[in-house]
Amino acid sequence: MFTGLVEEAGRITKIEEGGMLRLEIFAPVASSDASLGDSVSVNGVCLTVSEVRGDALAFDAMAETLRRTALGGLGAGSVVNLERAMSAEKRFGGHLVQGHVDGVGEVLGVVPEGGAEMWEFAAPEDVLRYTVEKGSISVDGISLTVVAVRDDSFTVSILPHTREVTNLGSLRVGDFVNLEADVIGKYVEKLAGPHIENFMSERQSV
What we know:
Largest sheet: 6 strands, antiparallel, barrel
Structural class: alpha+beta
CATH class of the largest domain: Mainly Beta
Strand order of the largest sheet: 1-2-5-4-3-6
Helix content: 10-25%
Radius of gyration: 18 Å
Number of strands: 12
Distance between the termini: 46 Å
Order of helices and strands: EEEEEHEEEHEEEHEH
Number of helices: 4
CATH topology of the largest domain: Elongation Factor Tu (Ef-tu), domain 3
């Protein structure tokens, strides 16, 4: 489990393709106390540490992960957002992020707004159905507050600090990002959905 508060912007130093995609990432903060088997959020994808090499960590991404995320589009030199799994003694400053990507989004535009920037991301219906104004969403592992929800996209406001300490500074229009909707909405739908359907059915039969 993660909070969406990025601990460092790491840099991919090496990519190896085989049965799985191996990513080697320069990550002095995340590697400082890392052990084999630890969970780390890499651009919002929960990956398992497969090797610790000094200031670098290696991860293996299987085919299913590549099908459902934007990790396959990364290359050597790409900047990635990193967050170690949350611990009980730290403040919970973001929102519940599982590292289970719901869909891939696309950067549609960036517009300066005062000292901040308004970013718009295209998103699939599987994400937008749980996206609400002023709710939370994870974009490449960053916990962000939704400004507005449109038919096929949503907007967020980005502070200069957020842009500086994450991969946002390296993204351009047309780039793809990993999206994870707030898990609370999914549980509400799962638990309340059947009751709502029964209620609506009863009303229609009256």
